Amino acid sequence: MSENPVRVKISFTVELGEVPARISSLMKEAELKLLSEAGALSTGATDLTDKGNLKEISDTIERARVALMGADMRLQDCHELLSSYQAAQLELMQSGEEEPLSEE
């Protein structure tokens, strides 16, 4: 199995109202990756009981572990984004400039 990919954190600016949709999109991306790996793990577990290729099963387990790590990092990003979004809404409400956007 190849080594883990190098990860970098990027940032960019969006309108405040776009934040929930962006966070939702990131969460869905993590979900899809996890669902895909869950299917592969299920197949690997069946293959193991059927005396399948141990190297392939081992690789499947490693890919699932890497996917879990990636999903955890993505969900941490979502958590941080959501916290920032909530802080921005609170700041707007306290400044009285605008009504805060509804929580979705």
Could you please describe the fold and organization of this structure?
The protein has 104 residues and is an all-alpha fold. The chain has one domain (17-94). The chain has helices at residues 19-49, 54-95. The protein is elongated and about 65 Å long. The model has no long low-confidence stretch (mean pLDDT 85).
Number of domains: 1
Q: Give the termini distance in whole angstroms.
A: 40 Å
Which radius of gyration do the C-alpha atoms yield? Answer: 20 Å
Helix-and-strand structural type: mainly alpha
Residues in helices, as a percent range: over 70%
Properties at a glance:
mainly alpha; 70% helix; 104 residues; 0% strand; 2 helices; elongated; single chain
Layout of helices and strands, plus pairs?
Blueprint: H1 19-49, H2 54-95
Helix pairs in contact: 1-2
Could you give a short description of this structure?
This protein has helices at residues 19-49, 54-95. With 104 residues, the chain is an all-alpha fold.
